[in-house]
Design goal:
alpha/beta; Rossmann fold; GMP Synthetase, Chain A, domain 3; 3 domains; seven-stranded mixed β-sheet; 28 strands
Length: 530
């Protein structure tokens, strides 16, 4: 697929083309078995014909609420071949969160796994636009289709319509999906994704990671863009394979990598400290893995020393795909790379959208150089769309800076910066430093209200198993390594950090605990000093 044009980036057509070229080669690997390119192509056609017979057509919005499984992949391609719009749904959603995604996306159909189907009766009467439900039995012995509040059909009943090739005549500019953000700072928004955005992101990740024809290990959820685009679609375009497991497990990670013979792993930043902080093993370098993606580049050296694996960092988002990156091996410590000049014009701007110079922090903004490689907006949310698309720039909401050679360095989400003593403090930088303490497994820093200044800093800390840590010891550790303004006032030791299913820390849940994030278990160093 190296020489394909932008116009050829239509999801169902790309699978057809790759199935012709690699029909008998393995495409998908699961714990239960493997599927070839040809088998995925054929099953996707069967699914498409069954969905069409049930009434799904071009332009219909179809919710897909399944765990990581072959059916998820088949359905994504089947819907694309019908010209329908997939709406992948976080499998942890229930109640108002589930209703919000289905209602705000105008989903007329829902394909749901059996174990999640009992969540529907609570919200069905508030979903007048949802016309029909298709239930996958999943791990359950049998799924009762009555009582769901909507007409329901078993997914298995759609597979009896043959596998003759299906094509909708979709174009690269057509909407392929509505992908919901993780909702770490507020309600999830549905980014409208043309076929070209999903597939150019997948293609670009192949080049930045040098992984043509390789096996990718994916412990991330397929309802998220990282796993679906940079993972599954990247393997498709590269003629390689992808090993998909249900979730990240530190105890199974390296055994899985060896079992699937994976050279690249999909990751989120929080996975890396957990793996680095695990007890050393004689098998630490006994594996085929070459690259973590996304890995933080400032962890490249410890990852190479411990595991012999590189960390590749780009600036990637659901709305824009890969906006910055560096050619494989040409990374700079702490940087997410240089502007992806083929796709985007990139700048750093102040609060009035004036470009700032090298070394000055500001918001990362983008302009596409090619059509439909950027989200076309947030579905049904004109206010959020106009807030992000202003002054002819797409505003990412991320604070960065760039050096004299055009390398960009991520600081934090604009909403995740902590304002203290007149300074913007990077929660990410603070977390990175605290994570180096040998007794810390991981942590989350965030701002809490202060009676004297902008905000005070609180850090929730997960301690390594079978170790102890005194709050005063951790504060002394911070005082030795950090500016005074970055030393936290509050600490709280917790068993685990709340997370989204994409394994990001859900800081809004930490801020919502107790009195604006301060709980009875919170340790206050100013009280200890009195």
């Amino acid at each position: 697929m190296r020489k394909e044009t932008l116009e050829s980036f239509v999801l169902g057509d790309v699978l057809r083309s790759q199935a012709r070229a690699h029909r008998a080669e393995t495409f998908l690997k699961f714990r239960e078995g493997e599927l070839t390119y040809g088998e995925v192509d054929s099953m996707s056609d069967r699914m498409a014909r069954g969905l069409a017979a049930a009434g799904v057509g071009r332009g219909d919005h179809v919710g897909v609420m399944l765990p990581n499984c072959p059916d998820f992949v088949h359905l994504i391609f089947a819907l694309a071949r019908l010209g329908a719009v997939a709406v992948p749904i976080n499998i942890e959603y229930r109640g108002e969160l589930l209703r919000h995604v289905l209602a705000s996306s105008d989903a007329g159909w829902l394909i749901i796994d059996g174990p999640y189907a009992d969540r529907l009766p609570d919200v069905a009467d508030r979903l007048p636009g949802l016309g029909r439900v298709i239930v996958r039995a999943g791990r359950s012995d049998g799924v009762p289709l009555d009582g769901l509040g909507k007409p329901a059909t078993p997914l298995s009943g759609l597979l009896a319509h043959g596998d003759d090739p299906v094509s909708s005549g979709a174009r690269f500019s057509d909407l392929q999906s509505i992908m919901y953000t993780s909702g770490t700072t507020g309600p999830s928004k549905g980014a409208m994704v043309p076929h070209a955005l999903a597939l150019t992101c997948a293609l670009d990740s192949l080049d930045f990671l040098d992984r043509w024809g390789k096996t990718i290990y994916c412990p991330l959820p397929l309802f998220h863009a990282a796993a679906l685009w940079d993972g599954m679609l990247s393997a498709l375009l590269g003629g390689g394979s992808i090993a998909i497991v249900e979730r990240f497990s530190a105890s199974r990670f390296w055994d899985d990598v060896r079992r699937f013979d994976a050279q690249v792993t999909m990751s989120v930043f929080s996975m890396l400290p957990i793996l680095l902080n695990a007890p050393p093993s004689p098998k630490d370098k006994d594996h085929p893995l070459e690259t973590f993606y996304m890995g933080k580049s400032n962890l490249d050296e410890p990852l190479r020393e411990r595991f012999g694996v590189r960390a590749v960092e780009t600036y990637t988002s659901t709305e824009a795909g890969i906006a910055t990156g560096s050619p494989y091996g040409e990374w700079r410590l702490g940087s997410c790379g240089q502007a992806h000049d083929e796709r985007f014009q990139v700048a750093v701007v102040d609060d009035l959208d004036r470009e700032v110079g090298p070394g000055e922090p500001g918001e990362l903004v983008l302009r596409p150089k090619q059509p439909f490689v950027l989200t076309t907006g947030y579905y049904g949310d004109w206010e959020a769309t106009t807030r992000c698309f202003r002054n002819m720039w797409f505003h990412t909401g991320d604070r960065v800076w760039r050096d004299d050679e055009g390398y960009y360095f991520f600081l934090d989400r604009m909403k995740d910066a902590i304002r203290r003593r007149g300074e913007n403090i990077s929660a990410f930088d603070l977390e990175c430093e605290i994570n180096t303490h040998p007794s810390v497994l991981e942590c989350a820093a965030f701002g809490v209200p202060s009676e004297l200044e902008d905000e005070d800093i609180k850090v929730s800390v997960v301690v390594q198993p079978d170790t102890g840590l005194d709050p005063g010891e951790l504060i002394a550790f911070c005082e030795e390594r950090l500016p005074r303004s970055m030393v936290p006032r509050y600490l709280e030791f917790v068993a685990e950090l709340p997370r989204t299913p994409t394994d990001k820390v859900a800081k809004y849940r930490l801020r919502a605990q107790g009195d604006h994030g301060i709980t009875p278990a919170t340790w206050d160093r100013t009280e200890e000093a009195e």
